[in-house]
Amino acid sequence: MVEGLAVLGALVLDAALGWPDGLYRRIGHPVGAFARLIGGLERRWNRPNFSFSARRLRGVAAMIVLPVMVGGAAWGVETVAGRLAGSWSWFVVALAAWPALAQRSLYEHVVPVRRALAASDLPAARMAVGRIVGRDTRDLDAPGVARAGIESLAESFCDGVIAPLFWFVLAGLPGLWVYKAINTADSLIGHPEEPLRAYGWAAARIDDLANFLPARLSGVLICLAGGGGWRILWRDHAHHASPNAGWSEAAMAGALGLRLAGPLHYDGIRTEKPWIGDEGGIANAPAMRRAETIYLRACLLAWLVCALATGGRAWLG
């Protein structure tokens, strides 16, 4: 029962507060500490004079050091809370888990994009979406901006909500924060280009594994929340370069009845990517609004799944 209360408490705190700017300015965010540790290891172990195999081995070592340190710290917090806080240990664990969730943050980053499009302020919309995507946004038209916002919301539903919850329910506070550390490492060093191709290999592969089940669960939840999209989910999930990101994007494209992805520009270079979804619907501000509604419903469904999973475990235990 304590575990279920901890999960629900973390979800409520995140939904109600997000990660407030004032708190961020005062103490930062745990992911920032991960980034400093990852960056320090990379500077030390990914030197250009090392061979390809030596850099790959050091990247593997980094992905052992990082989870052990983070998981050990989280285990310590969970253990001390259980011993000192007694029946209130769930609240301590919920507080410690709260920063790892991003339900409110994802929503609050997408809404300004939709509002700018609704106001026909394309420059503001490009600026807002540029804060949440890696592609070039300077020359995006309105549908391109809307697609970028919807894709970011759908893909981040897995990384920012479902995967952390999955590992929290499965492995407690250590599972949650080890996942966040792995996901942060993938975003920082898990790139196929030099100079990270060898060193970041382990981070990318481990992140793929950590997201394997959560990504598929994310797609199912989006289809349930959107009342459809199953055909596109099954047909187009493999159109994404990532083995996992395509599930939630295909589900959202199918639920909305429009196309996502397609050719993009990165650093001025056009990258040919296949479309996800069918032609028909128009990516615009109303479509973004529908995507936000689906996202919120999917989050509520995730709450229900967590309650059933933790409640069922307590009943069986």
TrEMBL record:
It is a multi-pass membrane protein. It comes from the Bacteria. Pfam families: CobD_Cbib. Its main location: membrane. The keyword Transmembrane applies. It is found in: Cell membrane. The keyword Transmembrane helix applies. InterPro entries: Cobalamin_biosynth_CobD/CbiB. HAMAP family: CobD_CbiB. NCBIfam families: cobal_cbiB. This is Cobalamin biosynthesis protein CobD. The lineage of its organism: Bacteria, Pseudomonadati, Pseudomonadota, Alphaproteobacteria, Sphingomonadales.
